[in-house]
Amino acid sequence: METRVAIIGIIVENNAVICDIQNLLSEYSDFIIGRMGIPYKQKDVRIISVVLDATVDTINALTGKIGSIQGVNAKTVYSNV
């Protein structure tokens, strides 16, 4: 099956769900190329970027699971390759 490179941008406004996000990212770790987390203390949010190489279905599944967590927003950008 064809894979795509994508980045998921995640904004976490609820610190209580960080472990939930970590567990999901661990579940999909085989597809993750890299990730970066930035705590933005002035706004009390956490910003996470996750770069993946996976099928569109896999990327959409992860984005949907993360985005369904209360206090979390997630959006995906896909490459053309």
Q: Explain this structure to me?
A:
The structure is a single chain. With 81 residues, the protein is α+β, with helices and mostly antiparallel strands. It has one domain: ACT-like. Chain A, domain 2 (Alpha-Beta Plaits, 2-Layer Sandwich). The chain has helices spanning 18-27, 56-67; strands at 4-12, 32-40, 45-54, 72-78.
What is the gist of this entry?
With 81 residues, the protein is an alpha+beta fold. It is built from two helices and four strands.
Lay out the secondary structure.
Elements: E1 4-12, H1 18-27, E2 32-40, E3 45-54, H2 56-67, E4 72-78
Antiparallel strand pairs: 1-3, 1-4, 2-3
Total strands: the figure is 4
What is the rounded Rg? Answer: 12 Å
Structural class: alpha+beta
The CATH topology annotation reads as Alpha-Beta Plaits
Q: Count up the domains.
A: 1
> What is the CATH level 1 assignment?
Alpha Beta
Largest sheet: 4 strands, antiparallel
Shape: globular
Strand line-up in the sheet with most strands:
2-3-1-4
The CATH architecture can be named as 2-Layer Sandwich
Distance between the termini: 14 Å
Helix content class: 25-40%
What's the tally of helices?
Answer: 2
**Mean pLDDT level:** 96
**N-to-C SSE series?**
EHEEHE
Strand content: 35-45%
Low-pLDDT residue spans? none
CATH superfamily: ACT-like. Chain A, domain 2
